[in-house]
Amino acid sequence: MRNHRLAISLAVLGAALLPLACEGPAGPPGPPGNANVLSFSFTLNPETLRYNGPVASVGYDMPEITPSVVAGGAVLLYFYEQGTWTALPYTFAYESAELPAVDFTVTLGYAFEVGLLEVFYEASTEAIDLRQLALVQTPRQLKVVIIDGLAAAKAPVNLRDYEAVKAYFGLLD
């Protein structure tokens, strides 16, 4: 019984001293970064696309897109091709072999709202079956950058250049 009372007394004493143990000099600064900016990569898989006429799209639940982001921030999307990240929207041109002129275009774009990011391909004409295009049937690496609040408006950086955005906001790949 005596050992039990001693254990309880030590526990009470330890709990009383616990707040004192948290005081002291400030620790070292954390790694560089920005609490208002986050980025991550994901894959756009062709089998997830929904087709509606000249548009093929897929929606992604994205709770990181908050009302604050929609009201005053930014959502940036890039795709990876030929060794570089390219900003969306991006338009691909198709030429016929017989006539070196653009027959039609397909735009890879995106839209967002609170909690949702939608990525889409849109053909310039309804005469094109998007399901037949290798462009649409190829998995694509995408990178989203979500900037909350005024950080986007005040950023003295070209937001269409992922490498510049990465450097300015201290993003990690």
Q: What's a quick, concise take on this entry?
A:
Helix content is 22%, strand content 37%. It is α+β, with helices and mostly antiparallel strands.
Features:
elongated; four-stranded antiparallel sheet; disordered N terminus; 9 strands; 173 residues; alpha+beta; five-stranded antiparallel sheet; 22% helix
What is the helical fraction, as a range of percent? 10-25%
Question: What is the helix tally?
Answer: 4
The tally of strands reads: 9
Termini gap: 58 Å
Shape: elongated
Average of the residue pLDDT scores: 82
Gyration radius (Cα, Å) is 25 Å
Task: Tell me what the structure shows.
This protein has 173 residues and is of the alpha+beta class. It has one domain (32-169). Helix content is 22%, strand content 37%. It contains four helices and nine strands. The chain has helices at residues 2-21, 67-72, 151-154, 162-169; strands spanning 37-44, 50-52, 55-61, 74-81, 84-87, 90-95, 102-113, 116-123, 140-147. Strands 2-3-8-7-6 form a five-stranded antiparallel beta sheet, with no helix packed on it. The chain has a four-stranded antiparallel beta sheet with strand order 1-9-4-5. A hairpin with a 2-residue loop joins strand 7 and strand 8. The longest helix has 20 residues, at 2-21. It is elongated. The relative contact order is 0.22.
